[in-house]
Specification:
This protein is α+β, with helices and mostly antiparallel strands. The protein is built from four helices and five strands; from the N terminus they run βααβββαβα. α1 packs across α2. It comes from Roseivivax jejudonensis.
Length: about 130
């Protein structure tokens, strides 16, 4: 099936549904709306108009950016959707962010290979999450 790609933010409902399908944590609709609105860049993949892949860059636009929300509908896993989403996000970052910008992400161990192939390396760190 042919996918269409764009940089438009999905609706809050689409975003929350894809996160659910992809097994990502729940977000409140108001928080999701604010997060989508404040993204540096968004990449979406659609099949027949339905959101099947997503990724976002968030950050300050100068020194720091973080890859978040890499999500693929389970029906489309194994077809390179996440790889293409990540590639498009990083291509945008290379073109639009200063060369000295640090791009980070937090990944589940099952996704390490995807991010290693894109040039990321594992480092130790800490995270604080809200309830």
């Amino acid at each position: 099936m042919s996918l269409t790609w764009d940089g438009d933010a999905p609706s809050v409902g689409e975003y929350l549904e894809l996160r659910r399908l992809a097994g990502l944590s729940r977000r409140a609709p108001a928080a999701a709306a604010r997060g989508l609105e404040n993204s540096l860049h968004i990449v979406t993949a659609r099949a027949r108009g339905r959101l099947v892949g997503l990724g976002r860059l968030v950050g300050d636009g100068g020194c720091f950016a973080q890859v978040v929300d890499i999500a693929t509908d389970p029906e489309f896993r194994g077809q390179g959707v996440a790889t293409e989403v990540l590639t498009r996000l990083l291509d945008w970052a290379d073109a639009e962010l200063p060369a000295t910008a640090q791009i980070t992400l937090i990944a589940d161990p099952g996704a390490f290979d995807l991010y290693r192939r894109a040039g990321f390396e594992i480092r130790t760190g800490m995270i604080r999450t809200q309830a």
